[in-house]
Amino acid sequence: MTLDRTDPEGSIAEAAKAYSNWGRWGADDVLGTLNFLDEARRREAATLIRRGVSFSLAQSFDMDGPQKGWRRRTNPVHTMLDTGTDAALGLQGFPHGLGGADDVIAMPLQCSTQWDGLGHIFDHGKAWNGRDAAKTVTSEGDLVTGIEHMAPHVAGRGVLLDVGRTIGEDGELPDGFAITEEHLTATAGAQGVTVGRGDIVLVRTGQLARTRRDGWGDYAGGAAPGLSFTTAGWLHGSEIAAIATDTWGFEVRPNEFDVAFQPLHQVAIPNIGLLIGEMWDLEALAADCAADGAYAFWLTAAPLPITGAVGSPINPIAVK
């Protein structure tokens, strides 16, 4: 597809119409592209486990994260409710010397490694499948497409597209680099891996590796490599189940229009029905894939079944 930098409204409307999945799985659908990930594909994906080595793809959930308070997104606050000190001082009131520790965490659901649910983004007041956003997500949460519906389904064939190593210099893409369909297909070809229906695609840009050397900086919301708006057709036509990146915002930043904010989200989530992941840690997995040449693996990345949530923290596990 072409991109007119001066016309985000027109380009978004054109892509939304061309790549809409509204009604594809019926009027009551709550899974979107996860419908592509069925039992048969999970059975096939299970055969990818050869060595039994596993990788956590989650960043840490702690106060040292990248969040700066944009739209009230903060880093997690971890508080102890009971401690070993309380036990040693006999303050817990338990009999026969029993003691324990307990804790609580307070955090936005999208402050670290996470999924964007189908209720996260709207297009001109419309939520996924053409629903009225005002009646879908209220102060009581997502009343229709809450992320809890996805909890049993996000497990299957994962595919790493290490664009940073394939296209970038020294394994990383610079901030502002727009990853096109050509970059994605070239990376898949160079790695000898296919991408197709029901896959959970992971795109490594290398930005997270850079922030670990240089500090968080503007990782949360600033300039970043990411998918070009022009990949909307590939996201739709490839029939993937989900996609995730190692960046804060999934798509390239600054965005490719003169005045815009996350236009690919506006097409991908409410119109395509695509599950999008952000801030995944792909470094250890990518190093292993480069070493053994195997870029497909079993992946489970279930969201927490938080009733009515429009996103969820996750600890994705890749197994090879």
From TrEMBL:
Stored Pfam families: Cyclase (PF04199)
Enzyme Commission number(s): 3.5.-.-
Keyword Transmembrane: no
Single annotated GO MF: hydrolase activity
Keyword DNA damage (UniProt): no
InterPro entries: KFase/CYL, KFase_sf
Alphabetized UniProt keyword annotations: Hydrolase
Protein name (Swiss-Prot/TrEMBL): Cyclase family protein
